[in-house]
Amino acid sequence: MELTEPLQFDHADRKDIYQYVESHGSVDPEEARRALRMEAHPFGHHVAIMKRDGVLREEGGELRIAYEDGGEEEFEVDDVEFTIRQARQEDLTGLVGAIRAAIGSGEYVDAETVADVIDTEGVLLRHNELESRIFFVACIDNDVVGWVHLKHPEIAKLNHTAELTLGVLAQYRGHGIGSQLLTRGTEWASDHGYEKLYNSVPSSNETAIEFLEGHGWQTEAIREDHYKIDGEYADEVMLAKSL
């Protein structure tokens, strides 16, 4: 299932099953059945149909949403080998840790919010009637060292846009990981019909602003003194890229 596909269900029970699995990320089938108070036979029947239709999949004995992952890419820059792939539910703890370590001084407010949300929800990928979000991660020896995140509000007037956040652990910067993550996220957005990406950072985060501008992003607006970081005011720089 594509993350951008409209959600349509021809049976109320299938919608309930989808919503339960989607909101939990990965769940034991029997736990889901009991929580939804369904009999074993109809529950199994609905799950089988949803697997057949590419809506659900079972992995490690647990149900999860069957997102298309787009495969894994391998890179080597300056003797640093890394891979970039779509994030999986198992990456959640490592991803939260990487985001919080990468933002360090707190000058990337949107990324900090992303980390707080996924840590609280305990769910990485989302696709429901309110929002869709996807992550791609850069990994070295299976450890998450960077990420790109795209969030899409399920609102008709904004369905051509997505918010993008991105970061790399400090010790792995300078090897093109951030550029490759940005390319992967941008290509995914373009391939799925998005027309515009946007991101907002405090003016004090000059490194992030220079990075995005160096990849064709432009400043659309500035909100003065929008942030207060460690007692100091900073403007919000609102950047965007047309696809």
Keywords:
243 residues, alpha+beta, nine-stranded mixed β-sheet, two-stranded antiparallel sheet, 11 strands
How would you summarize the topology of this molecule?
Blueprint: H1 12-24, H2 29-36, H3 40-52, E1 56-59, E2 62-65, E3 73-77, E4 80-86, H4 92-103, H5 109-121, E5 126-127, E6 131-140, E7 143-153, E8 161-168, H6 177-191, E9 196-202, H7 206-214, E10 218-229, E11 232-242
Helix pairs in contact: 4-5
Give your account of this protein's structure.
- By secondary structure, the chain is α+β, with helices and mostly antiparallel strands.
- It has 7 helices and 11 strands.
- The strands form 2 sheets. Strands 3, 4, 5, 6, 7, 8, 9, 10 and 11 form a 9-stranded mixed β-sheet that branches. The chain has a two-stranded antiparallel sheet with strand order 1-2.
- A hairpin with a 3-residue loop joins strand 5 (126-127) and strand 6 (131-140).
- Helix 4 packs antiparallel against helix 5.
- It starts with 11 loop residues before the first helix and ends with a strand.
Quickly describe the structure.
By secondary structure, this protein is α+β, with helices and mostly antiparallel strands. It is built from 7 helices and 11 strands.
What does the largest sheet look like? 9 strands, mixed
User: What is the average per-residue confidence, as pLDDT, rounded to a whole number?
Assistant: 91
Helices, by number, come to 7
Strand content: 25-35%
Write the H/E string, N to C.
HHHEEEEHHEEEEHEHEE
Overall spatial form:
globular
How helical, in percent, are the residues?
A: 25-40%
Given as residue ranges, the uncertain stretches (5+ residues, pLDDT < 50) are none
